[in-house]
Protein 1
Amino acid sequence: MSLFKNLVSEPDTEWEFIDDSTAASELVEPLPPAKAVVADKGYDSEKIRGQIKSRGAIAVIPRKSKSVIGNADMDWSLYRHRHLVEDAFVRLKNFRGLATRYDKSKRNYQSGVAMTCRFLWLPM
């Protein structure tokens, strides 16, 4: 899902589309040290790959079909586990209060997310 940014100042202002790869550097920067960073094709850019490599991690990102380099160095066994994170977000969005963020305070919302995650882990 792509990120959107509101051009604040006026209420009639249109929404501006921001590509995932444009905002990715802000998302990668605060990450804790890791051996690998797994992402989908939306984050395929040399800038993001370089940023991940400079942090000492391996970028497990499949290249887009128009790429000249190809996916020969791709670790597909590690990439297959990416769906676990995606599935967790899908299950969290099934809880209406979290999906629409009824709780406006940060503390209450974080508590709701934590309680829902515990609830989701119980049957496992």
Note: The two ends are 27 Å apart (CA to CA).
Protein 2
Amino acid sequence: MDNETIKRRIREFCQSPQPERKAEFFQNMKDQGLLNKHPRSLGHGEFLAGQIAYIEKRTWLLSAFLLLFIAWICRQNSGNYPFALTPFLASGILAQTRRSFRWKMAEMEYAARFSLRSVMLARMFLVGAADTAGLMIVILLVRTCFSYSLIRVFLYMMVPYLSASWLGSVYERKQRTDHGWGSVLICILSSAAFTAAPVFFERLYDERLTVIWAAVFILMAWNLMKSIREWIYGMEEPVWN
């Protein structure tokens, strides 16, 4: 059976209902001046601001709780273990890539005025920028709790955070069949890895290794940007079709 036969059979068994009051509908649109009216264009700032309301409140609450908890742990003079908590911040960012697929809305959002890739990129940027800014504030506040320089505290906080974000972004880009538990597991494993690392390598936080930490920071940041770029280009163009 060829495609034309299949289409004809579908039209025979699945006849669409006849439109009712179609002329009245278009007349009302014309009377209200909406028939030839085009959607108002939005600037980048206005578009980003509009997406804040669509980010789940629990995402912001989770980020605020983790940042406060990291700051509190640092104040308790608990050694280098607070550095291993930053991967959990990545879970809030990665959750933004999951909602459309979790609720089976991705196909519809592909054809919306603002495509799925534009919306997801905006939400990831907002949550990531907020988490990064919050982490910068925490670093400045807890700097005196460590004997390290400010740049070293920055690297020790950011490298685990970027590592979890990169690994999670790779996973989210390739696996869209679960409900996001895979990326959460990645954050947990990343935290566990950085917690256990000093046990096997006691000189991990030596000043002599600062250059290596800086190189890993640059590598993780580059890999994360590359992964997000590949994820974005795997979606539709950001235009209304």
Note: Residues 44-233 form one domain.
